[in-house]
Design a protein that fits this description.
The mean pLDDT is 96. A hairpin with a 2-residue loop joins strand 9 and strand 10. Helix 3 runs parallel beside helix 4 and helix 6 crosses helix 7. It contains 13 helices and 17 strands. The chain has 3 domains: 129 residues, 3-Layer(aba) Sandwich (Rossmann fold); 162 residues, Dihydrodipicolinate Reductase, domain 2 (2-Layer Sandwich); 84 residues, ACT domain (Alpha-Beta Plaits). The strands form 2 sheets. Strands 7, 8, 9, 10, 11, 12, 13, 14, 15, 16 and 17 form an 11-stranded mixed β-sheet that branches. The protein is α/β, with parallel strands linked by helices. It binds NADP nicotinamide-adenine-dinucleotide phosphate. The site of NADP nicotinamide-adenine-dinucleotide phosphate has 25 residues, from helix 1.
Length: 430
């Protein structure tokens, strides 16, 4: 039996305390699977006095978290603080430069500094692992890095934020509006007091940037992602989508084509009959399309103490077994520049929801603008008739470019008869 693998944990919140609980619950199983004992040597969080619901008495409490990066009796530093600067960044950088393996769940850190950290890990000859950073309990990092490593991956897409999926599911099931459901989600602890990162798509975009780098062998490029969240989705949109045979999901989409990469994070219409359309509540799902696998989809809980701790432990077991791989699947120095796909080349059907004043000639003006942008209409829905008052009109288009639909929507929105900013949603033909 190899010597114990000695770990130091910084951050004992949802994930950190979950990790301690998991290691305490399944210590024996993990030892036999890893081929050695995983031994928590030292821990740190901000507040030593806080009750975390787990027994920490067997572990040394350190007052200086950065000291773990240099201690000779620690093999792996586990960073579970969060944030892309401050203590999390300093700890990871110092641990790597001291030739310690690092396990983290920190997608914002990786999305912003992942390239430099990957280079630092590879130069130091240690592992930087982050399974928990994307889609929680779903082993999507390992699947892409190892399971699908023989493929040319052309597409990766999925539901990457459980809070948004919960809100959209509740809106559909109860007919309530976004603000109302968000408030309830905050009360239940499914959404943060400041929900910006989740509902504006930033958290999911962090994850998408990591997935795209891994899937396409490209550099992480968070700033190249076209991000929109779910704040503008109304219960009417959800009803219309349902009537048309779709569900609205916040989807991260990565596509690689001829050396350019599309990275989009946006609410989309997905068919009710599709696997993704049936991923409900707090669940996440990720689909990968590769030339030899066709399509593969994994679904599971994307957050929470249990699933996230499970992913952290999987990384620790890999390190204990001595498995090693480049951080992003290929050596960081060989990752290709991430060249963004221009909007004119991002083609899909579109859903256009207009709130128009019910008066003669409005639809003629709208269709003239669509015609001028070479956008053809597949179908049109209008609910209600109320002369002079605002009514909803939904137009489904045939394939058109993102550049054209955005330009057309801007012109339509400027018409005097349009009373609200048009909603454009991409339709995914899954
Ligand atoms: N929660 C999830 O479901 C989930 C899922 C996937 C990934 N993640 C990622 O996992 C990481 C941790 O998330 P979490 O939900 O566990 O967060 P959390 O519950 O807020 O826990 C954060 C921990 O970090 C400690 N901490 C904060 N600032 C610190 C500082 N300056 N110095 C030392 N310790 C500090 C806190 O100490 P105190 O406890 O003393 O305040 C707390 O123990 C984040 O990167 C997050 O994005 C979380």
């Amino acid at each position: 039996m190899k010597p114990d693998l000695k770990i130091g944990i910084v951050g004992l919140g949802t994930v950190g305390a979950g990790l301690v609980r998991l290691l305490q619950t399944h210590g024996g199983k993990i030892e036999s699977r890893a081929g050695r004992k995983i031994n928590i040597v030292a821990v740190h969080a901000k507040n030593k006095a806080k009750n975390r619901g787990v027994d920490l008495s067997a572990y040394e409490w350190v007052d200086d978290p950065l000291s773990l990066a240099h201690r000779p009796d620690i093999d792996v530093v586990v960073e579970l603080v969060g944030g892309d600067e401050g203590i999390a960044k300093q700890l990871v950088e110092r641990a790597l430069s001291s030739k310690k393996h690092v396990v983290t769940a920190n997608k914002s850190l990786l999305s912003k500094h992942g390239m430099a950290l990957a280079r630092a890990a590879e130069e130091a000859g240690v592992d930087l692992r982050y399974e928990a950073a994307v889609a929680g309990g779903i082993p999507i990092i390992k699947s892409i890095r190892e399971g699908f490593a023989g493929n040319d991956i052309s597409v990766v897409y999925g539901i990457l934020n459980g809070t948004c999926n919960y809100i959209l599911t509740e809106m559909r099931e109860t007919g309530r509006d976004f603000a109302d459901v968000l408030k309830e989600a905050q009360e239940k602890g499914y959404a943060e007091a400041d929900p910006t990162f989740d509902v504006d798509g930033i958290d999911a975009a962090h994850k998408l940037s990591i997935l795209c780098a891994l899937a396409f062998g490209a550099q992480i490029a968070f700033d190249a992602i076209d991000v929109s969240g779910i704040r503008t989705i109304t219960s009417k949109d959800i009803q219309f989508a349902d009537e048309l045979g779709y569900r609205i999901k916040l989807v991260g989409i990565g596509k690689s084509n001829g050396g350019v990469i599309e990275q989009s994070l946006e609410p989309c219409l997905v068919p009710i009959s599709s696997a993704l359309g049936n991923v409900e509540g707090v669940f996440n799902a990720v689909c990968v399309e590769g030339d030899f696998i066709d399509r593969s989809m994994l679904e599971g809980r994307g957050a929470g103490a249990g699933p996230t701790a499970s992913a952290v432990v999987a990384d620790i077991i890999d390190i204990a077994r001595g498995y090693s791989s480049p951080v992003l699947g290929v050596p960081a120095k060989d990752l290709k520049p991430n060249k963004p796909m221009p909007d004119k080349d991002i083609i899909s059907e579109q859903y256009l929801h207009l709130v128009v004043r019910d008066q003669p000639g409005v639809i003629a003006d709208v269709t003239a603008i669509l015609r001028d942008h070479a956008i053809s209409i597949e179908s049109m829905l209008q609910r209600g008739r109320d002369p002079g008052q605002p009514v909803s009109v939904v137009i489904m288009t045939h394939d058109c470019s993102r550049a054209d639909i955005r330009a057309a929507a801007a012109k339509i929105g400027a018409l005097g008869s349009i009373v609200a900013k048009p909603t454009i949603l991409r339709v995914l033909p899954l």
